[in-house]
Design brief:
4 strands; two-stranded antiparallel ribbon; mainly alpha; homotetramer; 16 helices; 64% helix; elongated; 379 residues
Chain lengths: 379, 379, 379, 379
Amino acid sequence: MRAGIAESQHPLVPLVRALADRCGDDGDYVHWGVTTQDVIDTGAVLQVRAALTAIRRDLERAVVSAARLAARHAETPMAGRTHGQHAVPITFGLKAASWADELVRCAARLRRAEEAVLTAQLGGAAGTLAALGTDASAVRGAFCRILDLAEPEVPWHAARDRIRDLGHALAEIAGAGERIASEVIRLQATELAELSEPLADGHVGSSTMPQKRNPMTCEYIVATARLLRGTTGVLAGAPAHLHERDMGAWAVEWIALPQALILTGGLLAKLAAVLEGLVVNPERMRANLDLSRGQIMAEAVMMALAPELGHERAHEVVTRAARRATAERRDFASVLLEDPDAAALLAPERVERTLDPSGYLGLAAEAAAAVSSRITDGR
Amino acid sequence: MRAGIAESQHPLVPLVRALADRCGDDGDYVHWGVTTQDVIDTGAVLQVRAALTAIRRDLERAVVSAARLAARHAETPMAGRTHGQHAVPITFGLKAASWADELVRCAARLRRAEEAVLTAQLGGAAGTLAALGTDASAVRGAFCRILDLAEPEVPWHAARDRIRDLGHALAEIAGAGERIASEVIRLQATELAELSEPLADGHVGSSTMPQKRNPMTCEYIVATARLLRGTTGVLAGAPAHLHERDMGAWAVEWIALPQALILTGGLLAKLAAVLEGLVVNPERMRANLDLSRGQIMAEAVMMALAPELGHERAHEVVTRAARRATAERRDFASVLLEDPDAAALLAPERVERTLDPSGYLGLAAEAAAAVSSRITDGR
Amino acid sequence: MRAGIAESQHPLVPLVRALADRCGDDGDYVHWGVTTQDVIDTGAVLQVRAALTAIRRDLERAVVSAARLAARHAETPMAGRTHGQHAVPITFGLKAASWADELVRCAARLRRAEEAVLTAQLGGAAGTLAALGTDASAVRGAFCRILDLAEPEVPWHAARDRIRDLGHALAEIAGAGERIASEVIRLQATELAELSEPLADGHVGSSTMPQKRNPMTCEYIVATARLLRGTTGVLAGAPAHLHERDMGAWAVEWIALPQALILTGGLLAKLAAVLEGLVVNPERMRANLDLSRGQIMAEAVMMALAPELGHERAHEVVTRAARRATAERRDFASVLLEDPDAAALLAPERVERTLDPSGYLGLAAEAAAAVSSRITDGR
Amino acid sequence: MRAGIAESQHPLVPLVRALADRCGDDGDYVHWGVTTQDVIDTGAVLQVRAALTAIRRDLERAVVSAARLAARHAETPMAGRTHGQHAVPITFGLKAASWADELVRCAARLRRAEEAVLTAQLGGAAGTLAALGTDASAVRGAFCRILDLAEPEVPWHAARDRIRDLGHALAEIAGAGERIASEVIRLQATELAELSEPLADGHVGSSTMPQKRNPMTCEYIVATARLLRGTTGVLAGAPAHLHERDMGAWAVEWIALPQALILTGGLLAKLAAVLEGLVVNPERMRANLDLSRGQIMAEAVMMALAPELGHERAHEVVTRAARRATAERRDFASVLLEDPDAAALLAPERVERTLDPSGYLGLAAEAAAAVSSRITDGR
């Protein structure tokens, strides 16, 4: 086959000849009335169907694991961070719920893309199926039934949007995976150490620095996501197929489509494993919440003062206290208790209560539980 | 505002202050408990809703016009072309049906993306809405009801897949537009001259070459599609928002999202106009069908011989005849009639009938009519 | 090795162990003081050097062939086309000169990128080479000398711009190839038939349509260029390596860099073959020049009238004549001779001369010859 | 003009008319013999020249500031981090030297791109300049001299690689900027707090959380880099201009090129300001070095043991000690002194010396100084 393709410069004719040889007298009917692209496109669709079995399974594992993390840690407080800075407390469950929620949308999107893409191709040389004469319609119908694929009203030789929908759905899986993996890498940083990807026994972290716990699985996920985005970008980048069939645009799919499926499969297997075995360290989360000695609760203090002082004035009071606490390296509480404006309105016991992260978690636990139940109830 | 933003380096605070000033005593409650991203995200969603009104309208115009072309030209024969070469005859209606079919999928995809993206954002500093205390849930509910937007279970500050779904839907519209416009440009080429985009009176084709009919509207569509793909690529390219909110990834949307909507709007207005006023030249289509003096019907001849000679032998006979016709610059028919193998099986009258393009259109007219009815019946 | 990598999840440690095993007592010094990325990066650079040998050779073949086409066809007239429309005559040599000129810039760009990228990597765990103690500088010097690679002042573990320069240089080769191949496809279209990629004997054009001459090599070039652009886009898309080394960003190169080199090599082998064997059909070029029955010379007529009538008035006169010639399907010459304004200024012999494409080629032949000589003289 | 463009759908004719009107009798010679693309391309090149003045100036500011940071902090120790984990010590000067080194390459690359791109365009309708008759060559020569632009041997209407070289050079500036800004964001994180972008007085960090120091300028840099990459990607993505001029591919530059220049200018102004005012906190760097209570020096200990124990055995000993220190939350030093294998070879004083980060900085200071001198000496 390899030699035949090299000599003929044709991607299919050598296969047709080989099949025909094996079919004896009926061999003459191999490839009867159809075009190369009918065969390769339909074959690609069947490969997609096979690949999506593994992809769906590992995506489901990831969804379920994220939902479980959301449920288990619905009330585990940790620092919420925006712009890379401590903002206000959240719970780890809320973060995991955001992952689970995005992954569920990935699954729905993939289902829709799969439905669209599982469409047969049978149009003949230029899409009219004229070579099959009056049998054309019946043959196409039977072809689709046998393969259990949808029958298109017009051939899609030059209209590849269904393939691009699949590309988008795969890229979104990668995007969700990259967001989760990047977050784990970041929260596994030496200084934060709140999460850790599972470390199997045989894994080698660093060849020279035995103290390290490198989040290499998450790094592979990130790298895979970037590669996949390049690949689906290739699919997205050539929509203007010329005339009835355009091999210059079409042939990119021969490499890009299988590569996209392989990369997604690899990414999801790793992502599912990371989410299933994720090591969560509530102690470190708590320690980091205390790192600013109370300042992470500045908004809570401001909201406590605002009904009396007004929003803007409360902001000024709290800013002043926060700066002083930083400059003098003191607990936020003690500075607040010395501040005439704050102290006038907030008794010591009220200051203490206001500075307790577990009292300022808003809808976090409720949201985490809701997302988690929605997912696990539906399964 | 401009000065305030320059000084504060903050995209929203100057607006908050200005609104508060205008609200008298209630001004203190402007921006109460929410975060900048709540406001900008919800505002962006409202802009999306407004923009999609125009986009949906012009997309519908394009769908309907393409369907009409499919119906009107269901039986207009023209050369089907693959690899840039004449293949077998099709009808222009089949080509237009392929456009209409893809545009209908664009509309369905856009509807789904719109549903997803019309979701409010209200999470406060890190998504817990803690600053609103026990009112959080009620306030968020009212906020979404008043704006008529979906209420998210968890905030999507860092999970931007709905925005990317919209980007994909817009890119697909552009892709369909680019395919159609590129085809018009190509079929309007001096040598083909089968189609022409509408030429308004005031339009200037070339400043120096008065004979030219430049398909400039289609070229603008192609250029716009490429720009749009760059823009939606930016949206797709930064999925890994860090922690609870990440301005480095988020702020790209401030430019990319409106730009994507504007480009799509511009593209669709032009595309609808091209499809509505497309000049179709059946005479030139017919002339081009005759260009090869019958050779475009080579497959038909081969299929006529194949039942007797077998597929492979028929291919050889027809190849030999085609080469001779080319070398001697003769009609394919006359060469076939001289060819002992062909002539033995096909009487002159049969050759003539076999070489008639209108007898070898397969399912073209039927498919064009089916797509067209499906679209117009549904409206 | 495969099993070792799977178990350790580490890309290099199994190799280090295997090498150490083979080195007997000295095995302990394998990988002494260096980091995995030192080894993989330097290895990649050596692979780049090897791959560029083939790439440079085929790029040179393409440059020389394009230059030869420019020289040989410096005076072969053909239709110049803009917006897909006939504009004014050019020569095929000018077109080929534009290809040669771009390919020469590709070669210069590649040389610069190669110089930059052939830089060794040896920095140890975080770039200080501290593990080598006082020998660090001497070891690094020797390492670079032995491998004949440039020695970097600071390690480039996290600064990958040289790799991206290479990516850009490869993408530009692909871009030039795609431009040339697309032009061949277009000029090989049934209606134009001015060029044809070489058709080797064993090649199969179409499995069913024996009359076709599909430009499949050029289509493979186009497809390869698009795939390559996706790959170099991946390299370009992750510049922000974190801290001292960042595997999430770096590991994309493991797949993207070899793939980019392979795709470029494949593309160039095909491109060189197409340019070396390109079939040029001056007869068809001439026939297409005559297709508009003189109107392709409208600008020449306008410029002949402009000194007397003024530019704008001349434009009006020529536009009127062109429209009339089109409407009445007549030769442009005969209409001009009937037009009072044109005929008053241009005698029949002058009209004839003005409508001769070979008299309106401007700098085409000169430019083609100049580019061609510059290239062949330098070799 | 706006109305004229809308009516004519032509980007230049209204301008030509307006200029002609203002030129009295000579007005007829406005646009004489040239094509629209000659004018727009040459105008774009002049805009590029103007924009690069600002871009070069701010790039130089960034280079010099980075070099100064390298010199000033050549010996300031901090944690080197790989995979997001503490690896071995480096100096901040080494990190800044890596920035400076990449920025210097950006400047050299930009210079080369500028040289290439500052090329005039004057080819007339299809590149032959035939409309200028025998004056063509002289006119083109004068045109280039007056504008001080290079004269191309062949027109580059359809060969846009110089523009793409500029795009690459701008994208690389953005890439360097994104790497630096991302690093500042990360090192400014609450837990690390080693760097901080300058905080001007009027800047508003957070509207609700007064304790925050949001690295918003760096975030704008990151967002701008991503937008710019999308824009230069558009330039890179359409190399296959058709025939002699192709507006569908060319017109993307009308938006993408100015946008790329504007984004680069904005990014560099911010980047220069960040580097000039960067707040470096050596105390926090030192504190973070001590965070692992000695384990960041594990490699140093291993290298100290390796000459006696062999590399592999030393790795085992150190790993065992590191795990124990972590499990028992003890200083690495005390665990090592209890470890029989380590203690046998390393006396307490040797352990102490080996665990001192300032004694394990390798070539860091030397490299930082070398890069810095190379830059400042050349200025």
